[in-house]
């Protein structure tokens, strides 16, 4: 069991659906660059010369922002899919309940706090 009450489950699902809509709207507004979403690229960006530093910096910045939004969108979509599969609220590593307080703070959390901490320590060690 995921340790969530039906009402908590519904609240989190509603929040994720809302997040999803907001992120989609943000992406639609953003200046999307070829590397991120080729088909959504506005014509004026395609045509603009990127041979000065400030426009390159701007492009890098908006690409980073768009990539970040896309990443969040994937996370939220992933979480919503878990509602359909009815395994939302379970840690993807140890299969234990993630817990409502953590999900309330991060509705798209994929790992319980214990596995998350372990993963972070792991990746820190990797970088050394
Ligand atoms: Zn876990």
Structure description:
The protein has five helices and no strands. With 128 residues, it is mainly alpha-helical. α1 packs antiparallel against α3. The model has no long low-confidence stretch (mean pLDDT 83). Bound molecules: zinc ion. Zinc ion is lined by residues 91, 93-94, 96, 111-112, 114-115.
Task: Summarize the model shown.
Helix content is 64%, strand content 0%.
* Total individual domains: 1
Number of strands: 0
Secondary-structure arrangement, i.e. CATH architecture: Up-down Bundle
Average of the residue pLDDT scores: 83
Order of helices and strands: HHHHH
The radius of gyration computed from the alpha-carbon positions, rounded to a whole number of angstroms, is 18 Å
> Which ligands appear in the coordinates?
zinc ion
Count of separate DSSP helical elements: 5
What is the CATH T-level topology? Answer: Four Helix Bundle (Hemerythrin (Met), subunit A)
In terms of per-residue confidence, which ranges show pLDDT below 50 for 5 or more consecutive residues?
none
CATH class bucket? Mainly Alpha
How many strands, what sense, and barrel or not for the largest sheet? none
Subunit organisation of the chains: single chain
- Give the overall shape, derived from the CA principal axes: flat
- What structural class do you assign from the helix and strand content? mainly alpha
Residues in helices, as a percent range: 55-70%
CATH 4th-level superfamily = DksA, coiled-coil domain
Distance N to C terminus? 38 Å
């Amino acid at each position: 069991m995921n340790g969530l009450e039906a009402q908590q489950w519904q609240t989190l699902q509603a929040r994720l659906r809302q997040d999803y809509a907001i992120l989609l709207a943000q992406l639609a507004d953003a200046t999307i660059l070829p590397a991120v979403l080729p088909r959504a690229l506005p014509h004026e960006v395609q045509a603009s010369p990127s041979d000065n530093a400030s426009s390159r910096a701007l492009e890098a910045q908006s690409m980073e922002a768009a990539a970040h939004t896309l990443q969040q969108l994937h996370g939220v979509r992933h979480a919503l899919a878990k509602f359909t599969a009815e395994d939302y609220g379970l840690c993807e590593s140890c299969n234990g309940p993630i817990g409502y307080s953590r999900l309330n703070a991060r509705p798209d959390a994929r790992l319980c706090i214990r596995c998350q901490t372990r993963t972070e320590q792991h990746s820190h060690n990797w970088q050394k």
